[in-house]
Design a protein that fits this description.
Blueprint: H1 4-16, H2 27-54, H3 61-84, E1 87-89, E2 95-98, H4 101-104, H5 109-136, H6 148-164, H7 167-170, H8 176-183, H9 193-196, E3 200-201, H10 206-240, H11 248-285, H12 290-300, H13 302-314, H14 316-326, H15 342-353
Antiparallel strand pairs: 1-2, 2-3
Helix pairs in contact: 2-3, 2-13, 3-5, 3-13, 5-6, 5-10, 5-11, 11-12, 11-13, 11-15, 13-14
Length: 366
């Protein structure tokens, strides 16, 4: 059956548009580069997971599982981008098609869109949880969340908002063939993939476009506001407040780990925000360049890798284990049981001098 887009392809595209696109602009190029990157990333993901599970010292037990949670979400989103979904976007329009494994498994493109959006926002929530954990670990913090039921409610509300806001535009997806023809007004010369691939057009209606922009912006602002609040709490109680509720060595540990957490969040954030900002500018300026679109996807997939690598570099037990592995040093291997910091020994000496060793004001964990 001859469709409108097929007629446009035969009568307009072949006459007016060039087919001399580069390998990077093709879906094959995006697929080859992204899959090749994942082959290199997976060993790093596995090594970092092993470090968190096996090389986390007792002094870091309070943050072990939340750190693992953040790491797993970052790795999962990277795997989605590099292998499972691998989105081929047609910016400046809100359309594209996947070239990853889920496409081979016949998962509908609309479902993959939902998986991608929700996974990215859940990854942001996991980062919020990491900073909340650091904030709640400070004993004299008035805003710390200590009860499990309140934490469960807090994160349930965040997850509920992320899940619900996508339902209205998802239920108002336009008829795809007419929507694709409409998009050709904005990008009259897309790559040839546009005509023979199962392109998914989320919306062409101004109302739903504005809804997606505004609602996504509000949710991102909400999550960043929470990150900012917990960061401010940590800075105030670790560096400004004069109320001493913990030992100086414990505070030193908390400051050190907090700085590591900041680095762990900020450095990969560059690889996340830069392609997003460029994508927004491209959409706003209505500029179409498929090489640029594919490059943004590849650059975005570096986010999880950099996050994983920073975890190893900024946290001393993992960094020390990495050095031992690289230098083939098998002596005095650091483990979660044997690893004891000098500061922890000092805290134990302090405890021995106290008449009441169970005092809540001295803590050796963080």
């Amino acid at each position: 059956m001859t469709t409108s887009t097929n007629l446009y392809y035969s009568n307009e595209w072949k006459k007016k548009c060039s087919n001399d696109s580069s390998f990077l602009a093709s879906w094959q190029g995006l697929s080859v580069f992204s899959h090749s990157m994942l082959v290199f990333f997976i060993p790093i993901y596995g090594f970092t997971t092993y470090c968190i599970l096996q090389k986390t010292p007792k002094t870091m037990n309070s943050v072990k599982w939340v750190l693992l949670n953040t790491h797993c979400w970052c790795c999962y989103v990277d795997i989605l981008i590099c292998s499972l979904i691998t989105p081929y976007f047609f910016f400046p329009t809100i359309s594209g098609f996947p070239v990853g494994l889920l496409r081979v498994l016949k998962v509908p493109t609309s479902v993959q869109v939902l998986i991608g959006f929700i996974s990215a926002l859940f990854m942001a929530i996991s980062l919020v949880a990491l900073f909340e954990n650091r904030s709640s670990a400070i004993q004299n913090n008035k805003f710390r969340i200590t009860k499990k039921r309140w934490k469960l409610l807090y994160y349930s509300v965040n997850c509920f908002i992320v899940l619900v806001y996508l339902i209205p535009p998802y239920c108002n997806v336009p008829e795809q063939e007419s929507a694709k023809l409409h998009l050709l007004q904005a990008i009259p010369c897309p790559t040839e993939e546009f005509f023979y691939s199962d392109v998914f057009v989320w919306t062409i209606d101004k109302f739903w476009i504005n809804y997606l922009w505004m609602s996504t912006g509000v949710i991102v602002l909400m999550l960043f506001s929470q990150l900012g609040f917990f960061t401010i709490c940590c800075i105030y109680y670790l560096y400004i407040s004069t109320a001493i509720m913990i030992s100086s060595n414990t505070r030193k540990f908390q400051r050190s780990f907090f700085l590591g957490t900041i680095t762990q969040a900020v450095v990969p954030l560059i690889f996340l925000l830069l392609p997003v900002i460029i994508g927004i500018v491209v959409i706003y300026c209505e500029y179409y360049n498929q090489e640029l679109n594919n490059s943004l996807v590849l650059f975005l997939s570096l986010h999880g890798f950099t996050s994983t690598f920073v975890i190893i570099l900024v946290h001393h037990p993992y960094r020390r284990f990495l050095i031992k592995v690289v230098t083939f040093d098998r002596s005095a291997e650091v483990t979660g049981i044997s690893y004891i910091t000098k500061g922890a020994r000092v805290d134990n000496n302090v405890l021995r001098r106290l008449p009441n060793r169970t005092s809540p004001y001295i803590r050796t964990d963080f």
